[in-house]
Amino acid sequence: MTQLTTHITVDRLNRYDAAFVMGLYERMVLIREFEEGVKFMFLEGTMPGTIHQCQGQEATAVGVCSALDDDDYITSTFRGHGHALAKGLGVQEMLNELFGRSTGCCRGKGGSMHIGDMTKGMVPAIAIVGGSVPLAAGMALAFKMQKTPQIVACFFGDGATSEGAFYEGVNLAAIWDLPALFVCENNLYGASTHIDKVTRVEHVADRAPAFGIQAQIVDGNDVLAVYEAAKRAADECRTGQGPVLLELLTYRRTGHSRRDACHYQPKGERDMWLARDPIELLGRAIVERGYANIEQLEAIRSRTETEFNEMVEIAKQQPPPTAQDLLEDVYA
User: Fold this and answer.
1) Is residue 173 in some structural domain?
2) What is the rounded CA–CA span in Å between residue 239 and residue 41?
């Protein structure tokens, strides 16, 4: 098992300039504040639909997407808010979408479980578990046939690796050497079932040799480790050495969905992972390195929360879709 980070050292931070590190931190804070704000709106009944949130998994989305080029694509899951924000979608267009407004990134037709924006390189998320894996293989095949340097990063959870679509999609990508980066966010639970109850192998990455592809197990709460692994994997995909499977070990602080109280998570396990919060890990290193002090980090959080609340009020005033909109964006 990979060593889980308990402290990001100054030496590691010294490999990067302050602007890059602070950018990672601010993006993770943005995801956390977005998710917390959305959670309370759902709980108080002011927002329609349902939610599957990613608090605690911010480093996986930010680390991977920071390693991608602007014209690369990602595919996502029903737990996709973090992926969207990390890939460059705006808070306003996402809030408009969550409120079902016509000015949302999917014109109010996707909602939380199908968030995305093709112009930002994110295919609207697929709620079918494992459903994005064969899609990513197809996209990667298109990039190869068109001889472009683009790659696709496909996010999925550990539960998806028990779906047939996972094996079919990864195998296709493998036999055709496609530029696909398969990213398993292993948060230990498929809904409420622990991964050790559904597989005899210790790691998802242990399945890679069956496909003949490279794999790496990464501390998914260490954003620098995720970035470094994703950057190497992306470079390999661009040079015809793909696909690559990354298994990012992480943990969600919230339940599977909004009505899940996480009672199935053992206290010792939960305490261990919460003590390794990805934002706090990087924040402590930033302060130790001198890139910012505690007050400046708190100011980032406070500013982000204020801006989020302002955008919520704007989203509430946006127009809903019309009956005519039912006839648009429909393809035979």
Assistant:
1) yes
2) 45
Query: What is the pTM (predicted TM-score) of this model?
Result: 0.95
> What CATH number does residue 138 fall under?
3.40.50.970
| 69 within some domain | yes
Is 103 part of a structural domain of the chain? yes
Of 115, 120, 198, which Cα lies nearest the Cα of 158? 198
Q: How confident is the prediction along the chain (332 residues), in pLDDT tens digits per residue?
A: 577 988 899 999 999 999 999 999 999 999 999 999 999 999 888 988 889 999 999 999 999 999 999 999 999 999 999 999 999 999 999 999 999 999 999 999 999 999 999 999 999 999 999 999 999 999 999 999 999 999 999 999 999 999 999 999 999 999 999 999 999 999 999 999 999 999 999 999 999 999 999 999 999 999 999 999 999 999 999 999 999 999 999 999 988 887 788 889 999 999 999 999 999 999 999 999 999 999 999 999 999 999 999 999 999 999 999 999 888 888 76
330 is a domain residue: no
User: Domain count of the chain?
Assistant: 1
DSSP states along 188-252? SEETTEEGGGT-SSS-GGGGHHHHT-EEEEEETT-HHHHHHHHHHHHHHHHTT---EEEEEE---
d(CA 237, CA 257): 34
Task: Domain of residue 96: give its range.
Answer: 10-318
